[in-house]
Amino acid sequence: MKRLILALLIVGALLAGLTVLGSRGWGPILITREGEQKILLFFGKALAVTTPGVFARVPLLMDVETYPSLGLYLNVDPESIQTRDQERVVIDNYVVWRIVDPVAFRGSFPPPGLDLAQQQINRVVKAAVREVVGKRTLVEVLSVQRESIRQAITDRTAKSLADDGIAIEDVRINRTELPPATEKNVFARMKTDRTRLARKYRAEGEEQARTIRADADREARVTLANAHRDSEIARGIGDAEAARVYAEAYDTSPEFYAFVRTLEAYRKTLGEGTTLVLSPESEFFRYLGSGTGGAEPAR
Amino acid sequence: MANDDDQLPAEEQVRRSVARTVGNTFVAVALLAGLGAWSFYYGTYTLYPGQAAIILRLGAYDRTVATEGLKFHLPAPIEEHEIVKVDELRKEEFGVGGVEEGATDVAAIQQASMQTQDNAIVRLSFVVQYRYGDAFRARYSLQDPDSVLRDAAQASVREVVGRMTIEDVLSERRDDVAVDSARILQDTIDGYESGILVTEVQLQEVQPPEEVRQAFDDVVAAAQDANRAVNEAEGYRNEVLPKARGEAAEIIAKANGYRDAKIAESSGEAERFLALVTEYEKSPEVTRKRLYLETMEAILPTVEKVVIEPGSAQVVPYLPLGSQRREGLQ
Questions:
Q1: Do A95 and A128 lie in a common domain?
Q2: Do A57 and A148 sit in the same domain of this protein?
Q3: Chain A residues inside the 8 Å CB shell of B233
């Protein structure tokens, strides 16, 4: 019983010690941490690839190489590329990639292989970008076909690196830049566009203003014309009514009206500057000669 | 060994057995204490608010602990912990200092310059805020999540701007740029299983390039000019129309006055005539005479009178009509 406990203790301490060693990368216990993958090598021949966790190995006889299993980031050098419509554009890409087959990867890029792999990816991506972008126009590259370009570049890159144990998750254009000469052309065109727009705005403002003024003038004229029309109608009504009233009244005695109206006309027309030739036999002088009065004058 | 013990005196046997027990106990206690100290030293950690701990057991992911306090795990190297600040707001700035007037930072200007759908260039600076939402993924999906996020953010904003016209970006759809970029960025980095949560994409400065800014300002000025012209025209209308309406009202009022006056005058005169007629019919002869004489009385004092006896042959009724009239006119 005592011995069993003792033995367990010893084994436990031994395991603990080996684990401590293993976590430092020595001894028969092999610990693979998250984000890592290890190749177990027996005199240069790959025996196994580990995933996170514990493995056993024969120390000294078996070598171990560690590779990242995480997504790796690489910013591809910006490159100036000519598009189909003979414009130049600087394209900056980034790549997210992963070592999916460390053995194949090791074969293509002998340790330490990461730098070599990055250079290779850099080259492959540039070639793919040149090919894909070269088939499209500048506008397509910059806006319309962004997604299909990304897809095409990613697919091409992934295909040519598949045999190297590399998986390309994404190649994405993170920045495009126009060369100074092209930029100048763009600025010139933008300026003309704006000038045209400014002119258009001013002209449209003028148009509206004139329309409003003309409309106002028209409305004013119509208002006045209507008023004149109504006023003539009202005057007409007044004149007609007056004529009717006069006629109605004078119709009661046309003869007397003629008499009264004639007298009134005399009053108005005869005055200073008028010479009136009168006969003493006229009605007015009827009593002038005789002085007697009363008798009717002989006509 | 037991045989040896038996041969020893009883006293000695007891002494040895006690010593052994004491020794064993000491060893056991020492071992336990060592085990405890090891466990405590390599197995406890403290989590503060906003932190999460990833626990790896023999290298492999075991669990994530997200509640704060004093925590334990099996002592290292059996289990290990890694603390990630999950709530910490991280920030990346782009193109800041490359948009404002007189900017000289070439790198910032390049970073801020973006092409729009109508093949124009706009400059914009923005800030991306994010945090590590999933501690394990943030730590173990990408080797360099911050750099990936940086480039992916640029790609997203450029993609959104590339689908809009410069007018959209500068005015109406400015907010869409931020919202759409945040969405596309989140989709992109979700594709890498990065565990990153984009909380916000904030547009800081959005401006046309300095080289053409004047032209853009002139468009704004033109819009204001147009507005002013319209306002002035409206002012003109507001002045002209009431005037016209006033004038119209005046004309109509005058006409109505004329009509009413005419009617009143006529009925007055008619009344007067009717009254006169009534009197005239009572004694026609006298009234007639009276009216005639009154008229003559009024006329004759002013007119020049020539009275000629009709039938008298001596007097030739000669009237120097022409000259007299002429003199009279003069």
A1: yes
A2: no
A3: 208-213, 216
Is residue B329 scored above 50 in pLDDT? no
Q: Which domain holds residue A81?
A: 72-178
- What is the tens place of the pLDDT at every residue in A18-65? 887 877 777 788 888 899 999 988 888 888 898 898 888 887 788 888
With a CB-CB cutoff of 8 Å, which residues 109-168 of chain B face chain A?
110-111, 113, 115-117, 119-121, 136, 139-144, 147-148, 151-152, 154-155, 158-159, 162-163, 166
Q: Are B78 and B57 in contact (CB under 8 A)?
A: yes
- Residue B155: beta bridge partners? none
Indicate yes or no: CB of A194 within 8 angstroms of CB of B265.
no
| A76 lies in the same domain as A62 | no
Q: Is residue A124 part of a domain?
A: yes
Contact in structure between B68 and B89 (CB atoms under 8 Å) = no
Q: Give chain A's domain count.
A: 2
H or E segment and range at residue A64? strand A62-68
Residue A176 near residue A90, CB atoms below 8 Å: yes
Query: Does the domain at residues B90-208 carry the CATH identifier 3.30.479.30?
Result: yes
Show residues of chain B in contact with A176, CB under 8 Å.
Answer: 115, 158
Write a three-state SS string for B106-124: HHHHHHHEEECCCCCEEEE
The verdict on residue A84 lying in a domain is: yes
pLDDT at residue A249 in the model: 87
**Strands A72-75, A53-56: pairing kind:** unpaired
Q: What is the pLDDT of residues B121-136, one digit of tens each?
A: 999 999 999 999 899 9
Q: What is the CATH number of the domain that holds A79?
A: 3.30.479.30
Q: For A52, which DSSP code?
A: S
Cα separation, B197 vs B186, in Å, equals 7
